Amino acid sequence: MQTQSEEARKSEKRSQIINDFSITIATVNGSGSQTSNATILRSIFKMGIPVSGKNIFPSNIQGLPTWYTVRVNKEGFVAREDESDILIEMNSATFNEDLAKLKPGGVLFCDEQIHLPFERSEIFYYPMPIKEIVRQVEAPPNLRDYLANMVYVGILAQLIGIEFEKIHQALEFHFKGKSKPVNINFEVVLRAAEWVKQHLEKKDPFYLEPMEMTKGLILTDGNTAAALGAIYGGVQFASWYPITPATSLAENLQNYLPKLRKDVDTEKNTFAVIQAEDELSAIGMAIGAGWGGLRAMTSTSGPGLSLMSEYIGLGYFAEVPVVIWDVQRIGPSTGLPTRTAQGDLTFIAFLGHGDTQHIILLPGNINEVFEFGWKAFDIAEQIQTPVIILSDLDLGMNQWMGKPFEYPDSPMKRGKVLWEKDLEQLDGKWARYLDVDGDGITYRTVIGNRHPQAAYFTRGTGHDEYSRYSEDPQNWHDLLERLRKKFVTAKPLLPKPVIERMVMSEIGIISIGSTNPAIQESRHKLAQQGIKSDFMRIRAYPFVGEEKEFIESHEINYVVEMNRDGQLNQLLRIEYPELANRLRSFAYSDGLPLTAKRLFDFIQQDKE
Amino acid sequence: MQTQSEEARKSEKRSQIINDFSITIATVNGSGSQTSNATILRSIFKMGIPVSGKNIFPSNIQGLPTWYTVRVNKEGFVAREDESDILIEMNSATFNEDLAKLKPGGVLFCDEQIHLPFERSEIFYYPMPIKEIVRQVEAPPNLRDYLANMVYVGILAQLIGIEFEKIHQALEFHFKGKSKPVNINFEVVLRAAEWVKQHLEKKDPFYLEPMEMTKGLILTDGNTAAALGAIYGGVQFASWYPITPATSLAENLQNYLPKLRKDVDTEKNTFAVIQAEDELSAIGMAIGAGWGGLRAMTSTSGPGLSLMSEYIGLGYFAEVPVVIWDVQRIGPSTGLPTRTAQGDLTFIAFLGHGDTQHIILLPGNINEVFEFGWKAFDIAEQIQTPVIILSDLDLGMNQWMGKPFEYPDSPMKRGKVLWEKDLEQLDGKWARYLDVDGDGITYRTVIGNRHPQAAYFTRGTGHDEYSRYSEDPQNWHDLLERLRKKFVTAKPLLPKPVIERMVMSEIGIISIGSTNPAIQESRHKLAQQGIKSDFMRIRAYPFVGEEKEFIESHEINYVVEMNRDGQLNQLLRIEYPELANRLRSFAYSDGLPLTAKRLFDFIQQDKE
Amino acid sequence: MTEQIEAQGKRSGVNLVGLTKMDYKGNPSTLCQGCGHNSISSQIIAACFELNVHPEEVVKFSGIGCSSKSAYYFLNRSFGFNGLHGRMPSLATGALFADYTLKGLGVSGDGDTASIGLGQFKHLLRRNMKLVYIIENNGVYGLTKGQFSATADQGLELKSHGVNPYMPVDIAWEALIGHATFVARSFAGDPKQVKELIKAALNHNGVAVLDIISPCVTFNNIDQATQSYVWGKDHETALHELSFVPRAEEILVEYNENEVKEVQLHDGSTILLKKLGRDYDPTDRSAAITILEESNACQCLITGLIYINPNQPSMVDMYNLTEKPLNRLTEVELRPKRETLLELNNTF
Amino acid sequence: MTEQIEAQGKRSGVNLVGLTKMDYKGNPSTLCQGCGHNSISSQIIAACFELNVHPEEVVKFSGIGCSSKSAYYFLNRSFGFNGLHGRMPSLATGALFADYTLKGLGVSGDGDTASIGLGQFKHLLRRNMKLVYIIENNGVYGLTKGQFSATADQGLELKSHGVNPYMPVDIAWEALIGHATFVARSFAGDPKQVKELIKAALNHNGVAVLDIISPCVTFNNIDQATQSYVWGKDHETALHELSFVPRAEEILVEYNENEVKEVQLHDGSTILLKKLGRDYDPTDRSAAITILEESNACQCLITGLIYINPNQPSMVDMYNLTEKPLNRLTEVELRPKRETLLELNNTF
Ligand SMILES: Cc1ncc(C[n+]2csc(CCOP(=O)(O)OP(=O)(O)O)c2C)c(N)n1
Ligand SMILES: Cc1ncc(C[n+]2csc(CCOP(=O)(O)OP(=O)(O)O)c2C)c(N)n1
Ligand code: SF4
Ligand code: SF4
Ligand SMILES: [Mg+2]
Ligand SMILES: [Mg+2]
After folding, report:
1. Could you say which DSSP state residue C146 is in?
2. Domains and CATH numbers, chain B
3. Taking CB atoms and an 8 Å limit, are A303 and D85 in contact across chains?
4. Could you report the predicted ipTM of this complex, rounded to two decimals?
5. Which residue in A94, B185, C291, D241 is a FRET match for A21, CA 20 to 30 A apart?
6. Cα-to-centroid distance, B156 and ligand 6 (Å)
């Protein structure tokens, strides 16, 4: 190993790189590095610099390699990068592979206990005397391992210029103001910084400088946003079964609901959250509750969704409003439970045997996650059908910057529900499945309605407009046609695509969900290469209609998605086959969030 | 009510209608009419006249209306017709609706105990003194109800000319040669015929005359064919859960296996059939058995298939050969359990969360049901993946004419399985997921292989080529790409479409499965109207490639299917979007088998 | 809209809530004549009529099967949901959270509950969800034509399905071990007991499991089958003569205290158990265990209230819900105030 | 190909089939240090080594969870299938039909078995499938970070998950009532007992349920939790000192007949039960019921072999299979002769 080579010294002379780099922190999971990483992220955020943090963790509890990547970018491009400028290495097991992904001229901070040789003379290398610094702090022995990770926070902070005040704020945030842990952690940070001042000379070009770009923004994860969205949507019933990466959505409900949704006078709950014994039961409960007139939901990921197929089919057919969150992880099968993808799209589009249709909402950032979180109930209750919201591990579990969550801009829409007084007015004359309004959506009553004509019988088998059992062929046919009509009625209620255009654009890019940051960055880079692009981020399925014009306005539209089979592209082909020659599929999936580079390279090569 | 009107007498003078009519027999289920109806069907078949029989029954056990329709057609067109020429009415509850579907000039045979007025002077009406005739027979009282139905067999036989010798043969077939029931039933038939001779004068124009057209053919149902196909395919393990209309498939396995598949010397079984506690378990067992090296299968219908989603996804990902029969009934949800459809196609094409692909076989007659029944094992074991065979209630439970089942024309293909001796030759050097042949299909071992290098660990989570656990992104990506390659390798093994062309054809018709008879008849009728057509019956998914040329060779191709959403059309659009403008969807689904008329009318109108 | 069922006879007397028995009827049954399930439906109707419960206050649930179909053949004025095979418990659980004032009444079959549904059934018990859960137990899958269900006798031979090789699930045992707070076994051929048990169950604050032997006359009625009419009639041994006395009513019948046991329910109503031969205390779990062990050994059909624990909180109790039923809460109650979101935003 | 595990020490002695303990090891565990599951894995390795069973003759199965992952951490030379959450029983059932000569060894968790998997677990028992079924019972879902599973104590309070409101599933009770023919309860902190039980279970001709308390040191190891190390250590009461004697071996230890009970297994091997305090006969189902009732009441962890019935045919026995394993049958044996089809065609 060598300390400071000729090479490195040369590159030192290059100009400073400010607010524009990626950091990878390589640790072992279960070691408490999450706190340290979150602290780095939030303190940079608090400095006003756009940032994102992504946790790339194994599917186990303790002892395996974990990476945390922080992207700092003054222009706001915060997609993940495959390679990083700064590597903080705390895990000898991954030293070599990590180093291979350090960009030329990058910086290596390395626990000095990792005595491994390497041959990269062009990089900047700072060994970190982790143990030694921790030893200086008075702390209970059981905390020492955790505190070790705070050392790199201090060292990094000192060298790249994270403001210590912001670190303190971040720690306060993390420990919810509890001063004891804040103080002890902060002390480690300061000592580490002190050590740097005394022992290191800064040679690398990476610097942070405060900006104003995150002012007024928030930083949180999608599963928190989803839970809050549901709560402001008036969720009354949630049943769920633990599964990564959806678990924290339900756990956030459990955390926030008691604070936000107790009756002020009586301290009684206006909600119930039930951990079911599996997903067959979770969806059954949610469908039961939705049928009973509650705003009901469940949250799961791929394997759970597969188990829910039959009940969701019943929900569609029996016309029960329910909201289902699918926080996607990469599949098929159990797959990689801690890696992300957008692979459940076609499965859901055709979910359940027989002819089915489902409304799918496709949020692309935490604000949409929040917004769709409440809107989904309005849509589900108005259309009387399951609404599935597709999030993913990246959006759900990683930290995203966003605008403050906006209070719902419209009153709750509970759909066509008849209560006692309505039935009195109607003289008891109504029929559950009679399409009186011609929009496919019929009137329903819910249990507890004491009007003697209120009750009806719900079933997954054939029925006529009066909810009587029926095997009549024409009946069945008409019922299915009415169900189809509901989805036409639904379209105006669904979020329209977000379309962003460039002047003199040449190509279109179409995508969904969490690929947004990578796409924005590639567009920027492509534009720098002279390839201007328009971007349509689809936010709902069935397609609402506006997609057509967008596609038509470009000869080539790249359909970008994180799966293997180009599932969005498949659905677009079904809907707009005549435009298929304008669609070019870019589907790539390896479990990690998309990088701008991958897309940029693809489009650039394709254009050549 | 009137007996013989002026109208009827006129029409009597029209020429005789021979071997070309439809009969509807309206009874109550659980009354034993099945024997009578089967007897009519089989005796006509034995007269050499093309015939088909369809049972339209309710989803209950006893006491509700049931219809049996027999189509007799000398040209071999035996699709169901909506209206019939002859109505045998045994159920007062449906008298009016049944009568409404009797064609003008048709014949009504009616239990004389049904005293209902009607106004159709143009029809021929024969009241049947059912009770009276049964009373003449000496029979145990508990059989009288059943025997009542034999009366209409005798009356019909005498009037339209079913040969009594054939009826006797049919009864022998039905009662497996047991002379007691054969004799008693035959006696009723003869007495009824005698009564006709003495009391009725034939006025209607409908006659049967022996032909030679069914010579050498067989008459049976698809679920029997499927079970036999599986048995000749060497099925070793079948796990199932009862569900209409798939139940009789497994029950046929249970019936035939002990006869055909006991070790001759030891009387030991070379198979196991297990009734599981549900479909989650049935598929789990089948996947376990397939993994263990058995030719394993399960059979189910829509709701069961939904429950199997997750395990089938595992089968795909863990590369386990297994054969799954989906005998479709109309859905979504519980739907109409005793009605047919082709509605599970897209659901299966995308079955399971994440990127999946599945091989679907699409038999269109009982011979293909048998053939695919054995071939499916070859395909599943060669490609190491689940193979799903889509049958439906019509194909599975109704009686179809066919050629004798043909013995498999090739030895069993067990795929790439390594046993002890193979591993010795390889010196133990192999890897479960290493694509040594470049076709995506890797070598496997199965349990019981005692070679010390034989074992490997199978899982639904990420793994490398050596079946080691892996979360490596590139690994995952490569694995999924190899899985994709398997489906390219599979294509040449899949049944090609059956293409039938007419000279100077103008349109194409594309379909799958049990719509075949209705399509053939419509083509014939359309041709008579000058609209010549070619027909492609697709028999496998993924599409094998030949579909393209067919579609290209017609400006309009009608894609005919029994579902609401045009699912085959959707899949064709995905595969051949550039040809979508040549595809016109004809999707209709009401639970009953397609009629030629409906398709004929559609195409004719469309052409106008 | 509730379908109007034609009165099939003269309207009989009205009950305390002013309704006649007709108001508790359902659609005409399409089950086989003589099916045990029909007789249970009649007792459900009679029990509700006699309990003076408004049909609108009962919600019906079922799975899939002949038994589950029967939910359509009683209480036409009650809401009902005929869900998925084996998964009625979750459906009912979710639905009943919508309005805790309602009485849930589930009807299932042995296939529905003990084969595909065993998991959901057992978890329902653990949670003590307030639901009357009737298993119409005939040992076969009636609706799919008579295959063995998980409760079929081991060794039972049926013409078209051979011999059942597996050990049966004993639903009452499962319920007891699974922490059910009300476990009864009865027999469709004993309508009086069925009716009184249903009344008691409808007033129990928790899950009430009624394992009722309900013969399938079409597929499993051979005399040797323990789920047949003949076997039941010959082997039934009632633990007690049971009658239910609602809260409002005084116990008028006079009885010898040594001969009658009283069990008081959560809502103040009472179950009276008149001794028949043995001294049996259904609140004693050990006694219940003994009786079930004995009933395995004795080859008899012991019927009656096997176990009851009237004091455990029901699942809904655990959730501390508002007094107003959840499904009647309005936007003001459901959507937190605007300020709260502003505060929250400051925490991110 | 079997992955080669680097010897992590000197090769120790060889057993009767010429293998060292290394040959029974698996991949390095990625579970938490101190996790009870690791200790059970060690005992599986030791038991198989001492039993002189070829690793190729054991087939491993598991569901999903930390416990289920552990199947990768032992017997690397055995085939293994890590299936779906809660649905290992069906997988194992199907697979073991392929070669009845193999020993099936399933590893599951309490979430896997008692929450999502309760149905499949119970049906496995009814069929008496020949499979060793180990539940590594820690009361929580370890892998998803410590939520309560169905076996968690009612009233247990965990920092991040509040108080568990529901009654726990008692796996041994469930197994006994569900007709399991071998029911044991043990404790990861009692490795000797675990090992001997595994040996006995591997030689039982039917399903062998081992409910082993296996503390989750990360999420459920507080002293009050009955699934913690401390509680287990403090409250374990062994029914007997158990040792397994294979068929071939003579029982060499001399013992007082009054102090030791022998249970002979189907294959001629023997379980020796040395009395500890009480006289307990695990072949007596009533005794087993009593002991389980008692263990509920006494607030103690009664361990040992609770029940065994060595004489009931296993599921595979019921299917009258060929002597040659099914998966070695060849085309001649599997495809009926051409003539048979001709005959069949004549019947249609
Ligand atoms: C998922 C699923 N699998 C299978 C079926 C078919 N099926 C309908 S009813 C039934 C059995 C019902 O048996 P049981 O609950 O005992 O009711 P019974 O008819 O005997 O009253 C089955 C298997 C189904 N509807 N859904
Ligand atoms: C269908 C499905 N739902 C949920 C999950 C997520 N999941 C993985 S492990 C687990 C719980 C495992 O608990 P347990 O069996 O007790 O094992 P432990 O980790 O405690 O050993 C869950 C819910 C899954 N893999 N599949
Ligand atoms: S088949 Fe059996 S269970 Fe079904 S209705 Fe008939 S008698 Fe009842
Ligand atoms: S989380 Fe618990 S169960 Fe999982 S490995 Fe760690 S200690 Fe074991
Ligand atoms: Mg039943
Ligand atoms: Mg656990």
Report:
1. S
2. 14-214 (3.40.920.10), 220-402 (3.40.50.970), 420-493 (no CATH), 498-607 (3.40.50.920)
3. yes
4. 0.97
5. A94
6. 69
